[in-house]
Every structure is written in C-alpha cells, then in structure tokens.
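Example record for the data management plan.
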Amino acid sequence: MNSPIFRDIATLIARVGLGIVFIAHGWQKLNTNGLDATKAFFESVSVPLPGISAYFATFVELVGGIALVVGIFTPIIGILLFLDMLGAFIFVHSDFGVFVSENGYELVLALGVASLLLAAVGAGRFSLDGVFGSKTSFAKSRA
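Corresponding structural encoding:
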C-alpha cells in the first residue's frame, strides 16, 4: 500500500507503541530498580563503563521513549535507541538464544530494528518533526 496517509498513521502507531515500551524500561531502570542497581547489573555482565552506561541506557530509553511518542528528533533518537538495544543484545541477551522467556534477544532485536527503521524513515506528518520539518529532523519528508 503506497498511501501517504496510511504510512503516516502506521508510523504514528509504531512510534507511540515503541515509545511506551522504552518509557517503561527507562522508568524501571530509574525508579523501580534504581540507577545503582542498574549499574551493579551492568557491572555483573561486563558492560564497559557501567556507571556511564547505566545513565545512558536509562535516560536514552526514558527521554527517547517520550521523544518517540511526540515524534521529535526521531532520526537521532532512533539511532541512540538502536545503539542501546545493540548493547543489550551484545552484553546481556545474545548467549541465551532467541526467546525472551529464556532471557533471549527477541525483544531487544525487535526494539532495535524498529528504532533503526524510524531513524531511517522519520516520524511522519503526525509528529513534531512533521510540524517543524528540517528544524528537528534530518530525514526528508516522504509525503
């Protein structure tokens, strides 16, 4: 289907759904577990610079999730979230197979590639990037 309105609605739904998941995971790292526990976990799985990495993952997920929901700076946020999920894949989930029920990588793979896709295609017209155009996005409009 090559309808611009369908593409913009689908992008909106994908952005909001993905953003909610990232907000939840960032909030979990910040509030539920806490940054100290997140850092300790990162140390236990040999994440480089665990203190900095814990702050990066927490705030990229929380702030990045909010940015996806409203659709601002989407290409940059998409790349940062992709890199965050790449780290989760490499340091936490890759040794456990595919299935999330076995601590596998299916969730981080889906979240990572969806973030990368949004970085590539942009936020769509129903977004702050769509309203402000090149001021908040380096993606070219496909409308």
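Summary line stored alongside the record: Helices lie at 4-32, 35-44, 50-70, 74-93, 106-121, 128-132.
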